[in-house]
Every structure is written in C-alpha cells, then in structure tokens.
C-alpha cells in the first residue's frame, strides 16, 4: 500500500464505500455530524494510514472510540501515541492516551447516545440505554483514546 492509498478498516463493501465517501468529504472540508479523517502512522509500514472517525467530546475533552474493536488503526495508535485529524485544510496534530476499561462507562454511554445510529451494530446489542453492567462488559472490546491537540 502506498502512502497515498487510504487504509479503511471495513466490515464489508457497503461500509467500505461509506468510509471512502466520508473520508473524501472530510478531506475536502465537509464534516458529517462532526466526522474527521484520522491519519496515524502505520506501525509496520511507517506510512500514514487514513480513515474517517467520529471524534467525541465528553466533559470538555476529546476522545476517539473504536466502535469496531481492536482494529489496525487502534494498534497503530498504540504504537504511534498520536496522529492527525483533518477536516479540509484544518489539520490538528494530537497525542493520544488510551483509557482504562473501568473509566469508559460514562464516555461510552455518551458516545452511543450521539453515534449509536451509526455504530450500534458493532456493539452487539449494547446501546446508550443498556445497563451500566452491559456497557462495562462491552468496554474491553472498544478501545478509547483521550486526545490532546498539540499547540
């Protein structure tokens, strides 16, 4: 894969097409409900990998939640410790810290309230209205990173 080829973690052809469209829109300055394009350095290739994400603001801080689990971008983020978020010409470079499972409950509930329409299928029946116990049980399957924009 060349550095100009975007990496999209997909669940199938419809998701792949949706990701390409949302990523293209974000690159060109159009954010759907707050979406952005994430660039994170590949831990093996060293090349920047791109995919659309739903940055989530909770209690004044910004987070990235992996609805699809321990995907490649998550592994890359753990290795890189940060990346870039882009909407059009606005690029925000950030550092990232992974949140422990026990601290995810209120954040995941708020994330599912905002983005559930798009991501509920990846949470295996867990929704914003699920019990605390159900959300905590799902937490290990959904990595969360607190991001801090540099500068």
Task: Please give the structural blueprint.
Elements (H helix, E strand, L loop, with lengths): L12 H15 L8 E6 L6 E6 L2 E3 L2 E5 L6 H9 L1 E6 L2 E9 L6 H15 L12 H7 L5 E6 L2
Antiparallel strand pairs: 1-2, 1-5, 3-4, 4-7, 5-6, 6-7
A few lines on this structure:
The protein is an alpha+beta fold. The chain has 4 helices and 7 strands.
Task: Considering the chains and any ligands shown, give keywords for the structure.
globular, alpha+beta, 4 helices, disordered N terminus, single chain, 30% helix, 151 residues, Pnp Oxidase, Chain A, 7-stranded antiparallel β-sheet
Give the strand order of the largest sheet, numbering strands 1, 2, ... along the chain: 2-1-5-6-7-4-3
Question: How do the SSEs run, as a string of H and E?
Answer: HEEEEHEEHHE
Any idea of the CATH topology? Answer: Pnp Oxidase, Chain A
Number of helices: 4
The total beta strand count reads: 7
N/C terminus separation = 31 Å
CATH architecture type: Roll
The amount of helix comes to 25-40%
Shape: globular
Task: Report the uncertain regions.
Answer: 1-10
Using the coordinates above, name the CATH class.
Answer: Mainly Beta
Reported for the largest beta sheet, the result is: 7 strands, antiparallel
Radius of gyration (Å): 15 Å
Supply the CATH superfamily name.
Electron Transport, Fmn-binding Protein, Chain A
Q: Mean of residue pLDDT?
A: 86
Question: What structural class do you assign from the helix and strand content?
Answer: alpha+beta
């Amino acid at each position: 894969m060349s550095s100009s080829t975007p990496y999209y973690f997909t669940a199938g052809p419809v998701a792949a097409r949706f990701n390409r469209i949302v990523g293209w829109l974000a690159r060109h300055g159009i954010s759907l409900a707050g979406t952005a394009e994430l660039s994170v350095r590949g831990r093996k290739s060293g090349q920047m990998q791109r995919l659309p994400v739903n940055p989530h603001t909770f209690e004044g801080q910004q987070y990235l939640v992996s609805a699809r689990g321990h995907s490649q971008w998550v592994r890359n983020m753990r290795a890189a410790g940060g990346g870039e978020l882009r909407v059009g010409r606005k690029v925000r470079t950030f550092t990232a810290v992974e949140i422990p499972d026990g601290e995810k409950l209120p954040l995941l509930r708020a994330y599912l309230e905002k983005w559930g329409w798009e991501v509920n299928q990846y949470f295996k029946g867990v929704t914003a209205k699920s019990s605390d116990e159900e959300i905590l049980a799902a937490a290990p399957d959904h990595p969360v990173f607190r991001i801090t924009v540099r500068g």
